[in-house]
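During the practical work, I worked with a single protein chain and the tokens that describe its fold, as given directly below.
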Amino acid sequence: MPSLKALRTRIASVKSTRQITKAMKLVAAAKMKRAIESALAARPYSDEVTAVMQSLMARVLDSGHPLLAAHAQVQKVAVVVITSDRGLCGGFNNQLLRRTDTFLWDGRRTGAPGFADAELILFGKKGRDFFLRRGGKVGRAVTDLRAKDYPDATAKLVHELTSRYEAGELDEVYLSYNRFVNTLKQEPTIEKLFPLTQLAQTAKEPEHLVDFVYEPSQGAILRDVLPLFLRTRITQVFLESEAGEHAARMTAMDSATRNASDVIDALTLQYNRARQAAITKELVEIVAGAEAL
């Protein structure tokens, strides 16, 4: 059985840990509230831009836009992976990274062209470190990205991906991120960004949009709306990921705080029993000594 001093030291250590996890939980809760408000506030705008895109695609028979045309052969694939820079957020990063790794492995196993040497564009230290350890082909990695940097980062990413896709340097581009569902659930999601064939195939005339007279033409407006749609979509993905990260960290720290309390209770019980045993032993020794005299 550990000594009383060892038990006191361990109880003090666990209490210090509990104070840290409790403080981290409060900080994560405050950040989560702001992040969720931003993500939820941006959803209606993102959905409306998507509806406008689908409306235009339903009306334009042949836009001729290169982003809407699938390449004949898929030889070059890129995956944009969005993770967090810091840990202590439960399975937030691990679930997404395992899902992405499985997605790439399934592509290689089935012999799909382009997946054998897929390029990875990484946002977040956790994703960067994971794929560097596994020897993945990292095109570029961005770390320490803050909410105020999302517009510039999104504009740069959209310009890079669109120019490379139009130049034939990329044949397919996928987004891998955690979609925020609620504070207890973040869903790892992989969706195809380029080509926009899936969006075009599901395009239909939204009921709440009336017909318009387009100037100069529907095709020209579609070409102008496409960059706006891409920037809006990727910005929404960043906001969803940030909200999910803070929610996962708050949940993880709350669980850690409760576990620390349970450990403290168990150690305190063990300490009291050891202390009582020591007192009883001393009394027995005193009584035995008195009887001997």
Q: What stands out?
A: Residues 218-292 form the longest helix (75 residues). The beta strands are 77-82, 119-123, 137-142, 172-182, 185-194.
